[in-house]
Amino acid sequence: MQRKKFDSINVVPMIDIMLVLLVIVLTTATFIAKGIIPLELPTGKSAKHFPPKQPIRLLVSASGEVYLNDRPTDLAGVAARLKMMDPKSPVFLSCDKAARYEHFVAVLDRLKAQGFSKINIVTRK
Length: 125
Prior knowledge:
The protein is of the alpha/beta class. It contains 3 helices and 5 strands.
């Protein structure tokens, strides 16, 4: 009996399997990213409601006026109102490019004094 010479490999079945696996991975990744996989969460007696943290918006105008969440205030008012807010909340600090640097530093100093660490400086791309 003569042996048959083995010159080539049939890769079509392997490609089919790889394409099916790719489709499965991409489909499940899309569902996970969009959060549309339905879940029925269990209930518990000691469960607590945690409201989402609202970002704090601080704005410094060109004339040095300070706005906290779109309400005008002064630096003393900023410090007093920040005491009532959660220091773990994200802060978005916007400063006019014509504003004096000392106004920006004063607001940033108030934030650091109150323990805020998630400070984002807003710029335009």
